[in-house]
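Structure in, sequence out. Go:
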């Protein structure tokens, strides 16, 4: 696959808390760093996203007495999975994994920083209407296709890709550069949504040398 100057690689939430030993570790999460580093030189545009929660965030199970991580509740904007406290602003867990080395990244987009609403997607918060500003940034930069890698495949990566399609961008997920949480079949569920929305799932060897 040929990459053009109008393509962007968006690396989703490669943070300590999502990697082994972290507060919300994704199994084998560190393994995505090598393929990300391998494909990054193909792209003139690279963006990093960073989960950036205030302490006491509404998505934390600890903010809801009697609730446990991975339970689901209803909030004003709809269903919300509750998570262990993770990626708290300024914490070690919120920092990028030290093996990720992408100094050429042109933007770090922080999301989930509003205490009262979670944000899986790089484009919208979980009310599905509050925009992060990323779509406008990409359009002003002349980006026409969006490629995604990082953590987690079935949440922040997947929601970002679906929103990219909703906004009219061709969206590609580099599968071997992602890992899934797979909570209650979430990986298979979101792949059904990928097929419906036209998200293309590829592997890193597709990139030409």
């Amino acid at each position: 696959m040929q990459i053009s100057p109008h393509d962007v690689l968006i690396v989703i939430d490669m943070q300590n808390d999502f990697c082994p030993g972290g507060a919300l570790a994704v199994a084998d999460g560190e393994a995505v760093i090598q393929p990300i580093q391998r494909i990054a030189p193909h792209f003139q545009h690279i963006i990093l996203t960073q989960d950036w929660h205030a302490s006491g965030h509404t998505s934390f199970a600890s903010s809801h007495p009697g609730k446990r991580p991975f339970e689901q509740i209803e909030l004003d904007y709809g269903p919300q999975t509750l998570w262990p406290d993770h990626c708290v602003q300024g914490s070690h867990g919120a920092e990028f994994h030290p093996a990720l080395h992408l100094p050429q990244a042109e933007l770090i987009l922080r999301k989930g920083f509003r205490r009262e609403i979670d944000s899986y997607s790089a484009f919208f918060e979980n009310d599905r209407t509050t925009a992060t500003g990323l779509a406008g940034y990409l359009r002003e930069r002349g980006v026409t296709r969006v490629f995604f890698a990082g953590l987690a495949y079935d949440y922040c990566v997947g929601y970002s890709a679906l929103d990219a399609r909703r906004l009219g961008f061709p969206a590609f997920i580099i599968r071997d550069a992602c890992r899934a949480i797979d909570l209650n079949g979430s990986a298979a569920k979101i792949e059904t949504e990928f097929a419906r929305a036209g998200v293309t799932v590829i592997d890193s060897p597709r990139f030409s040398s």
